[in-house]
Amino acid sequence: MSVCEILNEKIDERKQGSDCTFNGYLEDYLSLHEEDLEPVLKDAFKTILEEEQDAKIITDLKHAISKDAVSNQIIRYKDVFKLSSRPLITPYIIYAEHEDGEGRALLILPPSKENYLYGKGMYYCLTEPGSEFAEVKNELVSITAESSTEISSTFSRMFAEKAGAIQRNLDRQVFTNYDELKKIAYQAAEEEKADAIEKLPTLEDRTQEIYQYVVHWLVLKKVLYVQYMVNKTILKTEHDGNVKRQRNQAKINADSIAFLSYSEMWRLGTAEETKEDN
In which domain, by residue range, is 231 found? Predict the structure, then answer.
C-alpha cells in the first residue's frame, strides 16, 4: 500500500469515525476551517491547493505506539505501557497521489525547534519496523509551520526528490550537529517537566495532558537514539567503527532525557504528594 492508500482508509468524526477529526479534500477543509487557521498554514494550504487540486488533509490523526522498542530495552521508558488506545496524535498531514501512483505525505507541526524534534520523533515511531507506515517511510517528511513558502515548496519537492534528502535539509535549519540536537532535546524535556508541574494540579481531568507529556518524552528519546545510530561520522570518530559501543551510547543519551513518571504526574498537587513530601 502507498502512504495515500493508508491515509485514505482513516475515518473521521464527520462519518462517526474515531481515527481523526477530518480526512478529505484540502479544498473542502479550507472552505470549512480557513478562518480558524494560522496565517502560515492558511497561505501554505492555499498554495498547495493551487498546485495539487486533488490534495487531501487529515487532522488530529491518532496512532498506536509500537511498544516493541521499549520491550526490548532499546528505549527504556516503560510508562508508555500505561497509555491506552492511540495516544500519538499528528496535527496535520497533507497528502496527494499523482497519476503514476506516486503518493507523498507531509506531517506538519506548530513552529519551534522543540516541535521539529517532536515531528522527527513521531516520524520514527510511525515508520519503525512493524508500525503502520514502516513500508512507506520514504513517502513521508515532517516539518514545522515556520514558513508558508517552506511548507508548500517542500511538499512540491517531495514528488521530485528523495524524502531523506529533503528531511536532512530541513534538519540543518534546526541543528548542525548531534550536540546541538541533544541540547534542544534536553531543554525541551526540562520545559515539559516544568510545564507539567505547573499545569497538571490545576486540571480536573489530567488524563490527556499526561498522555501528551509521556508521548513527548518518548519521541525525544527516540530522536536522540535514532539520530545517534544513523550518524556514520560518530561511529567512525568516536567508536572506531564499533556499532555495539555506538548503540550503548545512544541508549545512554536517550536515558538522559528528564521526565516525570506517570505516577508522579497523577500525584502532583494532591494530598498524596503533600504526604510524601513531609
Answer: 178-277
Cα 247 to Cα 228: distance, rounded to the nearest angstrom: 8
In three-state secondary structure terms, 233 is helix
Q: Give the count of domains, the chain.
A: 2
pTM comes to 0.92
Cell numbers standing for residue 18: 474515531
CA separation for the pair 61, 274 (Å, rounded): 38
Does one domain contain both 94 and 232? no
Q: Are residues 268 and 193 in the same domain?
A: yes
**pLDDT beyond 80 at 76:** no
148 and 192, same domain (yes or no): no
Which of the four pLDDT bands, split at 50, 70 and 90, describes residue 73?
low
User: pLDDT tens-digit profile of 153-170?
Assistant: 999 999 999 999 999 999
Tell me the C-alpha distance between 20 and 9, whole Å: 11
> Which residue has 522498542 as its cell numbers?
69
% of the chain residues with pLDDT over 90: 85
- Residue 107 has which C-alpha cell? 506531517
* Number of other residues whose CB lies within 10 A of the CB of residue 26: 20
The amino acid present at 213, given as its one-letter code, is Y
Q: What is the structure's pLDDT at 274? A: 46
CB–CB of 81/64 below 8 Å?
no
What is the per-residue DSSP string for 2-62? -HHHHHHT--BGGGT-SSBSEEEEHHHHHHHHGGGS-HHHHHHHHHHHHH-TT-EEEEEEE
Residues 57 and 158 in one domain: yes
3-state SS, one letter per residue, for 172-231: HCCCCCHHHHHHHHHHHHHHHHHHHHHHHHHCCCCHHHHHHHHHHHHHHHHHHHHHHHCC
Query: Do residues 202 and 242 both lie within one domain?
Result: yes
